[in-house]
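ok trying again, last paste got cut off:
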Amino acid sequence: MPRSLKWCLASLGALAALAAAVLLFFDWNAFKPYLEKKASRQSGRSIGLDDISVDLSLTPLIIFSGLRIGNIEEGSEGDMLTLERLAFRIELLELLRGRVVLPTVAFDQPKLLLERLDTETANWQFEDNAAGLAVSGPAPEDRTEMPVIGSLTISNGELRYRDRVEDLDVTMIVDTATGAASNSENAVRLAGEGQIKDSPFTLDLTGGSIQHLRDPDRPYPFAAHLKIGETEAWLDGTIDQPFDMRGFDMEMRLRGSNAARLFPVLDLALPETPPFDVEGRLRYDGIVWRFDPFSGTMGDSDLAGSLHYSTETERGRLTGDLHSKVLDFDDLAGFIGATPDTGAGETASAEQTQKAAREDGTERVIPDEPIDIAQLKAMDADVVYSAASVATEDLPIDRLDAKVILENGHLRLAPASFGIQAERIDAFVDLDGTRAVPHIRARFDIRQLPLKEVLTTFVTDLAEDSETFGAIGGQAEIEGTGQSLHEFLASADGRIGLATEGGRIGGILVELAGLDIAEALGLVVTELLPIRWTGLTRI
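nice, full thing came through this time. structure:
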């Protein structure tokens, strides 16, 4: 071997040894001021590090300690992210090929605060000062941009989400999250708890592997159990676009004590109901949620059909087609602010049972529950409902059809039709919730009802009055204002016009006609929805 070649090889060996020695004993923290300055200028945020260490190999172990990312100026806290320790390995040979492969990633005590201040400002929007652009955040735009991660662990993590627009403040403790790139059976798991608008919140979610998350040709599978207060949901399905939160397709079971309790969380303006338990297929395409079809129970009634909720407009719009084979009529009590029957064999929540106990023995006939104006303005709706048969001991009603329209604070029944034998009563109601005090107009069209059967419902000794028989028809109109049904009837004015066909009216109907309209309607409402009272009190 020529001397010059030997000298060159020896020199290269010496340089390699020197480079290895430098790298082995190099103080990587010398890069820290440069990295902090560069990252802070690039993101428009204050970014700091306490320590950097590197264990060299073909898959070097890199450890960042004391990582901090500052919050936006308007944020509620100084830091958006604090991280006690981030440790990961990276495959250098794959990096040279243009692929980011991380055999292991471990987060220790990460605390992440996500805040939305208004419809246009959120702290996960970073400003790229080099490009003069605002970027949405660290999430990749495409699933294939996700780095290949072999195993992921998160210990003692905390995620907090604040949303001033939706008035949400959620804190979730992340206990574990593990996954494997090569083993699809080793799924990602996330468990946590916290608060949503003063309601306790728990989440247990299991998803596909990290590698599965990168595959754009396969929907990402997941299963979750979510509980907010007394409402629980079980979800099992897939999502096509995990980073955009679009393309959900899952089976869902939803159970709760009262559908109205969903309003603070989901902004769905639903009426007070007895306990419900429904399940069906839930899908979301980025604009419309579709719970279609579903079936289950509400109180002592069966309930099935479809619901669609569109987020395309600011308030959101709910459309639906619901039906029951058998409706237990007192399950509708919440629609007028009353409490459903809580007697033996009736289904009611603990809260409704307590409320009924407080009302028991009072003399008030008409419910005094305030109308929730905020719910009326929260969304629009167009929902139809039908019940093939009606279970009630006190009424001759045998079927029900209703159409409910809610638009810009106006609630309308257009109409609600109560079937009585071959005929019906049509109720048209318009509630204007845009005023400081709601204004209500109602019209009742009575279509040739069997007089004796109807009056027997309200007057127990009518059977002895042989002078009353035939059919009755007519119309009643009433208009007034009030924060509740009780206040409305107290201020209401209107008229009633009745006529009979092929029959006679005995003294009992004349006696009913002597009541003022509010008291007469109070009696009817009380009988329609069995509210506890002792004797009839004039309003």
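cool. Residues 3-25 form the longest helix (23 residues). The chain is about 20% helix and 45% strand.
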